[in-house]
From TrEMBL:
Coiled coil: none annotated. This is SURF1-like protein. InterPro entries: Surf1/Shy1, Surf1/Surf4. It is a multi-pass membrane protein. It is found in: Cell membrane; Membrane. The chain crosses the membrane at residues 218-238. Its main location: membrane. PROSITE patterns: SURF1. It comes from Streptomyces physcomitrii.
């Protein structure tokens, strides 16, 4: 009755079914882990944003990587902006997906070290071959506040570190690279400025990260598991249909023989 399961077609279909089930289960767990990572990330951001601001020197130092626990931590620094060594970060967007630059300005601390400060976003008007016009920051000694961020990398951001760019333009923010350019010690990571607010709203300060959404990963995980459960059900349905199609005519033939001949 079920000898057709030994045919090449059905053996292939059965093996494919057995392969799809663990693959789909695995994909479901992958989405579950992404959901758990998103939830943990949101909790971390919420906790660090709510923490009391501390001096940047307490959380980072030259050559040091900003630890994950201090991501988005509110920090302060006292010093002066060094606009002579200001650079712009290419291909950055604002909230409306407009392409422009991030303005990265060294902030010289009282002890001679520097802290990189991302002062915000400006639009890219015209060709991006020349250094854009940037509103100047406050002069003299001031206190800057912002969110502490780690150095950027291609692996983490997906942004390729293109070489041969126009003067004073970069693709990724790296405290080590800027230290070589400045010829002085630079604290690891950088700061997304939140205060003081720029005059004329330019550069545009970067918004705080959204930590209210958990994304669709849990829904995707459930979908993959439902697919995994549906695969064997579908296999059984196909087997029963094939059996019915194969045995139906044979069962109908004896019935036809027993039927009385017409008068």
């Amino acid at each position: 009755m079920y000898r057709f399961l030994l045919s090449r077609q059905w053996v292939t279909l059965t093996l494919l079914t057995l392969l799809l089930i663990p693959v789909m289960v695995r994909l479901g767990y992958w989405q579950l882990h992404r959901h758990e990572h998103r939830v943990a990330q949101n909790e971390l951001i919420s906790r660090t944003l709510a923490a009391k601001p501390v001096p940047a020197e307490k959380l980072t130092s030259p050559g040091r990587e900003v630890p994950r626990r201090d991501l988005y931590r509110q920090v302060t620094a006292e010093g002066t902006f060094d606009t002579a060594h200001e650079v712009v970060v290419r291909r950055r967007t604002n909230g409306d997906d407009e392409v422009g630059f991030h303005v990265l300005t060294p902030f010289l601390l009282k002890d001679g070290r520097a802290l990189l400060v991302n002062r915000g976003w400006i639009p890219a008007d015209g060709p991006q071959t020349a250094f854009p016009e940037i509103p100047a920051p406050p002069r003299g000694e001031i206190t800057v506040s912002g969110r502490l961020m780690p150095d950027e990398s291609t692996a983490a951001s997906g942004i390729k570190n293109v070489k041969g760019l126009p003067d004073r333009q970069i693709m990724l923010i790296s405290s080590r690279a800027e230290a070589r350019s400045l010829g002085r010690e630079v604290l690891g990571g950088y700061v997304q400025q939140t205060a003081p607010e720029p005059r004329g709203d330019s550069p545009q300060l970067l918004p705080a990260p959204d930590h209210s959404s958990i994304g669709p990963h849990m829904a995707y995980a459930i979908q993959w598991w439902l697919f995994a459960a549906a695969v064997p059900v579908g296999w059984v349905v196909l087997v029963r249909r094939e059996r019915r199609d194969r045995t139906g005519p044979q069962e109908a033939a004896p019935e036809a023989e027993k039927a009385p001949a017409p008068a």
